[in-house]
């Protein structure tokens, strides 16, 4: 930890002379309020539009000249910037990243161009994608109060009314060393990284951060439903159940049992949902289950699918719920659970195979309020999940009062081609 409150985490991996350098800011769309949605993501775009030292676009050119690659991403919980570089170039990219933490320029003309790019990004990735539209409607319906109800990219009306001043205010409020975590993973020495961090970031003063209020979600009192009509080839349905997040790795047994339940349903090629609903009963063309308990806010367990010809979305919804009920009633065998956990744990291990993957896992843990020191403990906790725990969570969390259902009602697909996007990268 630097004296100004900036956290530095170094993961030494000496297999190849490469480094992943990441700066994570603990602010995302969860910190936005009505009328300001999309601001965190818009700032991510503006971070490439010049500083007191660099012209717009020069940051990316400098990294490319160093032989590296770079990008950024915004989520509900955080915004992160990264460079992948040969190890001797680490100091150069660290200097670049430190510069834009405090010296970012907010040019009205550059913002006017970039907000058009963002609006086109929204059209391409959400408004023209029926599944994305359903997922957006699902979140807006499931959450009545929590900011997770808003899309990370923002509602179009908010984008149309956003000003460069809004983005500058976001930067001023949240981009500070005491709201940032540096993760460096690769062929480095931790002491040298600390010295470089002190050199380039240690001189910046910390800021007084005004944390947003939690806006806790009120209890749900019955099934919520939403239908989206959009041009699409096939209908689609997704069921979202409100379930516990992972807050305490040592004590939150149910979060790990839900992780394993998700893998029982959809964690490998012959998992239950695909084996039963796609290959045996043939009531679905595609099915899935997903759960991640790592988040700053509330989380949901998702079941989704595309019904086969002759099956309605209502029927597929019942089939999906029936598979949960079957586990709640009959449980899972030790043999099946052992096979599932082997696959699940292998996936946890394989994602650490690259230095960038390790940096990603460290940063996402820290941003959610968990500690990178407990990453290995997660595998131990998954390995310890019992059949009784899996059956218990299947019994406990999948009732009507926790459920939101979003359905896609297909409209005819036209051959009209979308207008070309404006100049500029989609980040």
TrEMBL record:
| Positions in coiled-coil regions | none
One MF annotation (Gene Ontology) recorded for this entry: metal ion binding
This protein's source sits in the domain of life called Bacteria
Domain Peptidase M16 C-terminal, residue spans? 162-344
Looking at the record, the residues that make up the Peptidase M16 N-terminal domain are 8-153
Q: Which InterPro entries match?
A: Metalloenz_LuxS/M16, MPP/UQCRC_Complex, Pept_M16_N, Peptidase_M16_C
Cross-referenced Pfam families, in alphabetical order? Peptidase_M16, Peptidase_M16_C
Question: What family does the database annotate?
Answer: Belongs to the peptidase M16 family.
Q: What is this protein called?
A: Peptidase M16
């Amino acid at each position: 930890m630097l004296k100004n409150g900036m956290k530095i985490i170094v993961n030494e991996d000496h297999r190849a002379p490469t480094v992943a350098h990441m700066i994570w800011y603990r602010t995302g769309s969860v910190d936005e309020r009505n009328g300001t949605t999309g601001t965190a993501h818009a700032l991510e775009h503006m971070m490439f539009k010049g500083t007191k030292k660099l012209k717009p676009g020069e940051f990316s050119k400098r990294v490319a000249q160093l032989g590296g690659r770079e990008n950024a991403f915004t989520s509900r919980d955080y915004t992160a910037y990264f460079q992948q570089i040969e190890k001797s170039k680490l100091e150069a990219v660290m200097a670049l990243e430190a510069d834009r933490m405090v010296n970012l320029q907010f040019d009205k003309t550059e913002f006017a161009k970039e907000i058009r790019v963002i609006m086109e990004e929204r059209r391409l990735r959400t408004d023209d994608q029926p599944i994305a539209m359903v997922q957006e409607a699902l979140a807006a319906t499931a959450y009545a109060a929590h900011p997770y109800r808003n899309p990370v990219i923002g509602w179009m009306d908010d984008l149309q009314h956003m000003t460069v001043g809004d983005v500058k205010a976001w930067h001023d409020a949240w981009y500070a060393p005491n709201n940032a975590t540096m993760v460096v993973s690769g062929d480095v020495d931790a002491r040298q990284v600390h010295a470089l961090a002190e050199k380039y970031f240690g001189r910046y003063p910390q800021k007084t951060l005004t944390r947003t209020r939690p806006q806790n979600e009120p209890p749900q009192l019955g099934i919520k439903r939403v239908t989206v009509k959009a041009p699409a080839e096939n209908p689609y349905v997704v069921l979202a159940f409100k379930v516990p997040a992972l807050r305490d790795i040592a004590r939150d047994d149910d979060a790990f049992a839900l992780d394993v339940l998700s893998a029982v349903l959809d964690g490998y090629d012959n998992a239950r949902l695909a084996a039963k609903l796609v290959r045996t009963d043939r009531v679905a063309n595609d099915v899935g289950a997903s759960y991640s308990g790592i988040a700053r806010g509330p989380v949901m367990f998702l079941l989704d699918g595309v019904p086969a010809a002759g099956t309605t979305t209502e029927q597929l919804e019942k089939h999906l719920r029936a598979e949960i009920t079957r586990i709640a009633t009959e449980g899972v065998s030790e043999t099946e659970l052992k096979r599932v956990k082997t696959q699940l744990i292998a996936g946890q291990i394989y994602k650490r195979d690259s230095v960038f993957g390790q940096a990603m896992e460290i940063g996402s843990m820290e941003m959610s309020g968990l500690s990178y020191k407990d990453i290995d403990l997660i595998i131990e906790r998954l390995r310890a999940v019992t059949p009784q725990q899996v059956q218990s969570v299947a019994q406990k969390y999948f009732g009507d009062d926790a459920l939101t259902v979003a359905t896609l009602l297909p409209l005819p697909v036209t051959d009209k081609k979308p207008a070309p996007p404006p100049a500029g990268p989609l980040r």
